[in-house]
Design brief:
This protein is of the alpha/beta class. It is built from 3 helices and 9 strands. Strand 5, helix 3 and strand 6 form a beta-alpha-beta unit. The longest helix is centred in the N-terminal third of the chain and has 18 residues. The structure holds inosinic acid (IMP).
């Protein structure tokens, strides 16, 4: 582990506090409804675990999607579903849980794919948003932190599958 390359950006208490705020907002917006939360693996694992546990009053069905699009610090530009949903989401209120929206290509592909399955509603929540890198017009419905154009790791986010287990989010410096 080359931890000296990582400069902390958000520590665990800051992440936890922001997640609680988003959870409260989502609970208010979906009061009385059943929510199908789709966790986009693997990056959203930690975020989704904390977010969903921060809304114990909400009726939630958990689903997950396996998706790959990155190699190293650059997007390959091609999104591939490696594990599909186990249930039918037609007529359901669906919330897609993402770790980060960068160019927006992954999200726009997933939203289009999920929309074709005719959910009653479809929204998305992301822990991090890098709007300066966007190549498609897309605004997350709920977002934790807006960050500048840095490659970040930790709290589920990886560099070639490493660093996901860090309890904080930090900027990775390759130099
Ligand atoms: P997009 O399609 O460019 O928006 O990329 C979305 C996906 O790329 C995310 O779900 C992440 O898996 C990955 N990604 C984008 N930026 C970063 C980063 O700074 N660190 C780690 N993974 C990232």
């Amino acid at each position: 582990m080359e931890l000296h390359r990582i400069t902390p950006l958000f520590d665990a208490p800051a992440i936890a506090a922001r997640i609680r705020e988003i959870a409260r907002q989502i609970e208010q917006d979906y009061a009385g409804e059943t929510l199908v939360a789709i966790i986009v693996m693997k990056g959203s694992l930690m975020f989704a675990a904390d977010l969903l546990r921060a809304m114990p009053e909400q009726d939630v069905i958990v689903e997950y999607l396996g998706v790959t699009s990155y190699a190293g610090t650059e997007s390959t530009g091609t999104v591939r579903i490696t594990h599909d949903l186990a249930s039918d989401i037609s007529g359901k209120h669906v919330l897609l849980v993402e770790d980060i929206v960068d160019t927006g290509r992954t999200l726009s592909y997933l939203l289009e794919n999920l929309r074709s399955r005719r959910p009653a509603s479809l929204k998305m929540v992301t822990l991090l948003d890098k709007p300066s890198r966007r190549t498609v017009v897309l605004d997350p419905d709920y977002s934790g932190f807006v960050i500048p154009d840095h490659f970040v790791v930790g709290f589920g986010l990886d560099l070639d599958q490493r660093y996901r287990n860090l309890p904080f989010i930090g900027v990775y410096d390759p130099s």
